[in-house]
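2024-03-11 09:14:02 DEBUG pipeline.ingest accepted 1 chain
2024-03-11 09:14:02 DEBUG pipeline.ingest length=449
2024-03-11 09:14:03 DEBUG pipeline.predict start
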Amino acid sequence: MLKSSDSTASTSFLERTFHLSEQQTTVRQELLAGLTTFVSMAYILFVNPSILGAAGMDKGAVFTVTAISAIIGCLLMAFLANYPIAIAPGLGDNAFFTYSVVLGMGIPWEKAMAGVFVAAILFTILSFLKVREVVIDAIPSDLKLAMAAGIGIFIAFVGLQGGGLIVASKASLVEIGSFTVPTTWLTIFGIFVIAILMAMRVPGSIFIGLVASTALGLITGLIKMPDSLISLAPSMAPTMGVAVKNLPTVVDPQMWAVVLIFLLVAFFDTAGTLIGLAQQAGIMKNNKMPRIGRALMSDSLSMLAGSVMGTTPTAAYVESSAGIAVGGRTGLTALTTGVLFMFSLLFSPLLTVVTSQVTAPALIIVGVLMASALKDIHWDQFEIAVPAFLTIVGMPLTYNISYGIAFGFLTYPILMTAAGRRKEVNAVMWSLLIVFVVLLYILNILPKS
């Protein structure tokens, strides 16, 4: 049994390490936030192997690598940056890797993974030289707010889609889903539970909603009970070190574009996500994110480790917003998420009960919370309103955070100059305009999946 003195010592250690009092949070609140974030993003443990498996990679190895890269990323974010932000292999990057690079361009996955490794090295160097930090600090406040709101609407759209409330349509691209599908009602149930609890200001509303939806799914048979409770983690041998062994193949000119895409997309996906989450958590101070350099280094090092083990780029997860919404404010939230990913290696069968219909309500409600950033954008200034609007709608409509950022950054310098405010546009923003023109051109000429 834990003695009182031991408990006090543990609390004191956590206070010194994560500065809980300064951030007006508690150990219990951080643990709940970490658990909520984990539950919201645990799907990547199964989605990543499925997508990379289509590229010919061993699904079992990818499952283990996914968990371990998430553990590394979360621990780095916890102890280096002290942010409540979780890191794991990015969902968009793995799709680009499989469908555009491997299947679209016909590049073997071993060679493509070497490209990810090179991009990770460049990524880490840019972080060490503080280039990424300079770029993020140079982004105008209105665009940062637009990025936060855009990410909120994007993840709400992901939730609506995952929950079955919105489905694809040949006639209108998207349309309302069918209410005759039983699992869709799990999403509807979860939305109402969370919304009602939040309106009543009940602590931990999102997590309670997730548990309630899971319980309803199990009781009604809509969610299948797991066959077992414990299983050993598969070996990483099929993917470990493959990127390093195939490093010489990167000299192929075809790979240069691949490396550049992975580098730029990873750069701005994480930058946009970090800014959006920082806005939500109230971390931003004077339009700057404290310890941003450490957060970016955490992201870079986890991406480097992941590429060596055999997975596509890691990224800060927008699902961290679910943990932030229940009170997560420090690295203890990220540490908790990382520890749960560690346990997931042994209890992977239990994670099958957390379906997309269960996590969808959390994403939708968090989208509502993040969209509040819209109120602080200067909509009365047209030269700002247009870039902000394009940033916001670009993310969900292209299903890509980087595209939304690109639309805003391409129009902001031009419209500010047209409005006679050229002096307010710094050199970094002009440089980014050129970078995004190149990025969009390369993406346009690559084979489509």
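2024-03-11 09:14:41 DEBUG pipeline.report The first strand starts at residue 87 and ends at 89.
2024-03-11 09:14:41 DEBUG pipeline.predict end
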